[in-house]
Amino acid sequence: xIIGTSEIQRxxxxxxxxxxxxxxxGHPWLGSGEEAVTSRIKxxxxxxxxxxxxxxxxxxxxxxxxxxxxxxxxxxxxxxQQ
Length: 82
Hints:
Number of helices: 1
Number of domains: 1
Number of strands: 4
Strand order of the largest sheet: 1-2
């Protein structure tokens, strides 16, 4: 298991079920030292998992949300046509 269900804060289908999104709890990618290495390994494992199901990373975007200036790292995947 790459990311446990306890680490997922919210998940839902959006845009008339054309897209699926999930939000992880907290800020798991902001670690430092050994924690940062663990986070990056999880990221690589997550990319491998998506690839094994036929999904390819298409784009990454840092999106600002709201007036508080918070940022959301967003990954967009596309299905590989075979």
